């Protein structure tokens, strides 16, 4: 039963779901009557949604309209259209519109549509005052009440029969702006207007011009008058008086100023007249300016004044401009064509001129401290004129210059530059210094007390004598320094190290180390190092030679190692040799002792072994032992030849054992340069009978047979030893 109800419920849900199916086909936005709308006309923005449904059911739509990305309209409707009404279109309604429709969890947005509202409303201009004074300001306000910011406001000021003066203001957040215009001198009736602009589609749209507003200007005072008494053309020494006056409406804040070349000569406040008086000089000639100011108002008047010269400037003449100390100097002051004047002679000084004498002539004996500029002054009728300065230079003679090396010592490293300094202890500057290398002039320098010279062409065999001379404007002439001889230091080149003996050295012997260089100025510092101790040299010596020998006595095993030498001189360049290796070995007597200690035990062992064998032989000897000769000899002849080398422990019985000592003797005597010609030596010995029950004879007997065979290698007849008393002897 429950299963049946569940199946019915699911089928009903599926049928219900199938009945509510819908989809957006398109969403469109339109503007009526057109996308171009005249300013002030109405317009409608329509958003339409085209939707397909599975059945006819009611669907609720959420409409949202945007302008330039900002929400301007929103509504909810069961219809597929929504309308945004703008009763009066303004330029601020220009922009990009789009709409979005949301229904049943689905959303669709239209394409963007640009709407252009053409034209702007006419602005309104108001002035704060209709009548102003010169120097005041006119405050204006321009309104665009039906427009939305941002906006540009342009203000215009027009004088009678002149080009308008224009200013503009950008207003980002309001639809009006305020501007001030100054009222200048000469303004009488002014006309003002304004207009607005806004930015539209990569361009500007401009409004009509506003209403025109007239402002009347009144003068606060009249233009001033400027006069000079007794005249504007006078002679220097005469007194001249200036007078500047004006007529004002009110005295408050009135100011009169008299200027010449932007320099204020006199001024008065809240008065109508200014006066200024002075004794005229040539410097007083020029243009004078009278200015009257009140608030922002200002009026000026100009007057040119000409001043005639009463007498020319005096002229100062010196008997000499350059002279030696302790010489006489005469200064004379005069005025061309004019003799009645008061003269004075002075010396210029930064802290004020120093008076010397009230006279037209001055004679004095000078010293170096009198060097400087001199002037004379002449006074007539209170007018004082000054001559041009005359420069006087008093010279002390230069002392004999000294020439030295800047670094100190009179030496230079080959390839390095040499810097010299020439100095005079006394002498009035400027001093001219001249440097010589040999007798060749290298450089001339003008300086105060010293000069330097850089010689970069230093050669090993070049000229090494330098001198300099110094002179100034003193009549004593040139002074020359002593000749400075320079030592050229040749740097060390190619150091090498050798030893005698080389390589291996016997313990306790002497080794001679020789460190030498190919090139370098003396003295040379030689140092010999062992590589294991690079900080402390084993040997060190300063030598006036290109080599040094160090004899090291008593070499030991600790002296084994790698050695090198370093050579340096005053060039401060150290050169390191290639290393050599010294190996300290045992001395001959040490080897003999070691050999003795090793060979004596070996010799003792050999002697003991020989004695033991002899003892064993003697013990093995009997009364005379007879061997079964013939049969044994016949059967074993071939065997003996074969087994003499291989069967060292056994031998056949065809002979008898010789004495070991005689065997060694015969063996030694049988050796010689020609073994084939050697004859067999027969030794007669007595032997005991061989005991067949004892062990075979050892290597002593074997050696005897071997030596006999070697001596008779090609003889069959002498193959066997013939021992007297042997029964089978043939």
From TrEMBL:
Q: Does the keyword Disulfide bond apply?
A: yes
List, as start-end ranges, the regions of compositional bias called Basic and acidic residues.
660-674, 707-730
Membrane-spanning ranges: 593-615
Q: Which residues form the Ig-like domain?
A: 224-306, 312-391, 401-485, 491-581
GO CC annotation, single: external side of plasma membrane
Pfam families given in the database record: Ig_2
Give this protein's Gene Ontology molecular function annotations.
transmembrane signaling receptor activity
SUPFAM superfamilies linked to this entry: Immunoglobulin
Signal sequence, renumbered to the chain: 1-17
The record's annotation in PROSITE patterns points to:
IG_LIKE (PS50835)
In terms of superkingdom, the source organism counts as: Eukaryota
Report if keyword Transmembrane is assigned: yes
Q: Which UniProt keywords are present, listed alphabetically?
A: Disulfide bond, Membrane, Signal, Transmembrane, Transmembrane helix
InterPro entries annotated for this entry? Ig-like_dom, Ig-like_dom_sf, Ig-like_fold, Ig_Fc_receptor, Ig_sub
Region span, Disordered: 651-730
List, in alphabetical order, the GO biological process terms annotated in this UniProt record: cell surface receptor signaling pathway; immune response
Which PANTHER family is this protein grouped with? IG-LIKE DOMAIN-CONTAINING PROTEIN, IMMUNOGLOBULIN FC RECEPTOR
The protein's name: Platelet and endothelial cell adhesion molecule 1
> Per the UniProt entry, what species is this protein from, by scientific name?
Calidris pygmaea (Spoon-billed sandpiper)
Q: What is the lineage of its organism?
A: Eukaryota, Metazoa, Chordata, Craniata, Vertebrata
